Amino acid sequence: MNINMTTENAARLARLAVRMRLDALDMALASGKNGSHLGGSLSCMEILAVLYGEVLRYDAGHPLQPDRDRFIPSKSHCVLAHIPALAYAGYLPHDEILEFQKDGGRLTGYPMRPEIGLEYSGGSLGMAVSVGIGMALSARENGRDSRIYILMGDGELNEGSVWEAFMAAAHYRLDHLTVIIDRNHLSYDGNTEEVMGIGSLGRKLDSFGWHVTACEGHDTGALLEAFAEEAVGKPHAVVADTVKGKGVSFMENNPRWHHHTLSRSEYEAARAEVLAKTAGDLQGGAL
Amino acid sequence: MSITPTEIRAWSRLGQRGAFFGVAMPRIAAEKSSLKLLTADLALLSGMERFQNGFPEKFLNVGIAEQNMIGIAAGLAMEGDCVFATTYASFIAVRCLEHIRQHLSHMKCNVKVIGTAAGTAAARSGVSHWATEDLAFMRSLPNLTVFSAADSLEAVKIAEYAADTPGPVYIRLSGGLNCPVVYKEDYSFCPGRLTELRKGNQAAVIATGLMVAESLRAAEQLEKEGISCSVYNMHTIKPVDREGLREIFERHGLIVTVEEHNVIGGMGSAVAEYKATLEHMPRQVFIGFEDTYAGAGSQRYVWEQNGLTDMQIASRIKNEWELKSQVSMIGKKKND
Predict the structure, then answer these.
(1) Which of B58, B79, B100, B103 to mutate to test the interface with A (most CBs of A within 10 A)?
(2) pLDDT under 50: residue ranges of chain A
(3) Which residue of B68, B70, B76 is in closest CB contact with A138?
(4) Which residue range is the domain that position A39 belongs to?
(5) φ, ψ for residue B63 (rounded to 5)?
(6) 8 Å CB contact between A132 and A70
């Protein structure tokens, strides 16, 4: 893997994450009374910025090229992060991101549309790691260098089939499979350790035979380093410590923002906050 | 090359499952590079040794993790493989239902799921290993084609057809070893079309799976008792052969559906759903499990407890036919 781990690159990706956060707020506002999944999208913004901005190998002009890396958000409700990333990557016009809930729209309802980078139709949790195993097995058998990246929420680790898949990925020694766990400690109903404790995730995955990297999930430099780690003969788990609702103080660590409507005044306040923290950064340098 | 009667007899001894995985799958694998066969720790039981030894790169045992198996199958199919995935019918059709719904039905992945020992073949293992609702679940999933084999030869034919035809499929295999022969000679399998196995003119018996052989014997018995029955093999549960059904409805005075499945939601329901849209059609008798898990013991014992043996089917049809005759005589008198 050829990953640029310079501080300049990390700063560029941090700026990308800020832009994507602003996009997410625009999308949430556009969703009106339907509401949207803000909290869990804000928690994985840096992860997606680093993946689409540096790690993944893809060509939006040739979206079905067999050697591409595959990315599947198993926590498919992170649309407010994923769709801005796809727009940044060139899979869709930037204006289209606001149509993510349009009746009959091509972005609506977690569709599978590989031609615009949507490799998998998710929505129901705990299924995508298995699919990633199938993809990784196929890549290995056919001598393709593709890597498979699956983003999971921590809440969906409650699903039993996830652990079937964790067992199988290690059994098949799938070192081209990387699972990123957005460890934001909140599921719909509250703290994951109160709803259904996940406990020591790193130790669990390690005992399952995975190469485990823990990192700070909002630090683009740390994420770059995590993705650059080589896991030989083992699948790679990146446990990214994150904050649900990250970047907007009144959303952070508040389960209410798992899925919620965003009022105009909340939008203005959130936008100002995101900009204030990073305004200087955003001006400097290209993405 | 046509299949010989000797092969047909040998395959019948292997049963539907043995013929499907021990005979058909190795043949298909020899010609199809993109083929994969997945099992959930039932390779031995399913007679997969030949496949496993001959095509190890096409074979994957995922352990006792059926849901994971469906996801892996989908991932392989998304990369271009034609994937067959199998375990007991109840485990695949019921335990994996949502995974099949998401990956096969909704995403249309090219995966063939094969439910084995459907019905009550594993009678002594208890209800956990029966599948008397699988057709109801699989039939209600959009985009899925649903087959149910009447004998070992038909199981082989369905395997070959499914391998050649892109798209998601559920295949119901019934029975254990020694599956009665329905097709004594090689024939041309017509997916989506009801097969007429016996021509009569009074009652029409539409059967699927192991009930086809039972129904044929029931029809022979009824012939002796003066009731002329047609017998049809409904091997394609979905899509329903509307044209074939309509012709059957028009030519007969009584429709009898026979299946080793709950009378709710199975093959009989598929027939009735279409019949209900037509006017002036004959009455239907549903033979199957009457919304119950009655009886545990040998498969024959379970069938006896539920009226599914040849002689019980014959006597039920006889009663229904006589009832129908009485009713129509009363109707005539009233009109006179």
Answers:
(1) B79
(2) none
(3) B76
(4) 7-111+127-283
(5) 80, -175
(6) yes
